[in-house]
TrEMBL record:
Keywords: Carbohydrate metabolism, Galactose metabolism. It is an enzyme of class 5 (isomerase). Its EC number is 5.1.3.2. This is UDP-glucose 4-epimerase. PANTHER family: BIFUNCTIONAL UDP-GLUCOSE 4-EPIMERASE AND UDP-XYLOSE 4-EPIMERASE 1 (PTHR43725:SF15), UDP-GLUCOSE 4-EPIMERASE (PTHR43725). GO terms for molecular function: UDP-glucose 4-epimerase activity. Pathway: Carbohydrate metabolism; galactose metabolism. One of its GO terms (cellular component) is cytosol. Gene3D superfamilies: NAD(P)-binding Rossmann-like Domain (3.40.50.720), UDP-galactose 4-epimerase, domain 1 (3.90.25.10). It catalyses: UDP-alpha-D-glucose = UDP-alpha-D-galactose. Pfam families: GDP_Man_Dehyd. Residues 10-82 form the NAD(P)-binding domain. It comes from Brassica carinata. GO terms for biological process: galactose metabolic process.
Length: 144
């Protein structure tokens, strides 16, 4: 890896057959790994076995989260731990059915890792979108 920043990988179903094998490999490759698994078709001992296989040093880079991917609360709990990278939470409008529960955006990490810095912020983005929509009420279609 080119980056000196440790990369985090989330493995869903990481206590399962494919998951545990993947996690062992990722830890050996130097990644930090978070697992989310509801243990519906696996046992926590499988994760213990992963720790045994990779040893104590790499085990420190493994985090297990008991949770169900279909459960919004479990997902929010998991990502709230990672919020150091997702520092700006923006409430765009009143939520509608099917909308994402929250939207996070931060360019801090891309600046650190890629040397890329955003030139404009949310204010400019909203202003430009508003102007464009006002000037193009039919979007990309021609006026009928
Ligand atoms: N010894 C063997 O050869 C062996 C053993 C097991 C599986 N297999 C094969 O491997 C394949 C399946 O492996 P796999 O790793 O995809 O399946 P898996 O069932 O082993 O792993 C899936 C994991 O996802 C978890 N999970 C399921 N739904 C979830 C949810 N909603 N939220 C969170 N976690 C959830 C389960 O608890 C499980 O740990 C099959 O083809 C199977 O026949 C082979």
């Amino acid at each position: 890896m080119g980056s000196s920043v440790e990369q985090n990988i989330l493995v869903t179903g990481g206590a399962g057959f494919i998951g545990t094998h993947t996690v062992v490999q990722l830890l050996k490759e130097g990644f930090k790994v978070s697992i989310i698994d509801n243990l519906d078709n696996s046992v926590i001992e499988a994760v213990d076995r992963v720790r045994e296989l990779v040893g104590p040093d790499l085990s420190n880079k493994l985090e297990f989260n008991l949770g169900d991917l279909r459960n919004k609360g479990d997902i929010e709990k998991l990502f709230s731990k990672q919020r150091k990278y997702l520092s700006n939470s923006v409430q765009l409008s009143k939520k509608g059915r099917g909308d994402a529960s929250a939207v996070y955006g931060s360019t801090e990490r891309s600046e650190k890792e890629l040397g890329w810095k955003a030139k404009y912020g949310v204010d400019e983005m909203c202003r430009d979108q508003w102007n464009w929509a006002n000037n193009n009420p039919w979007g990309y279609q021609k006026k009928l």
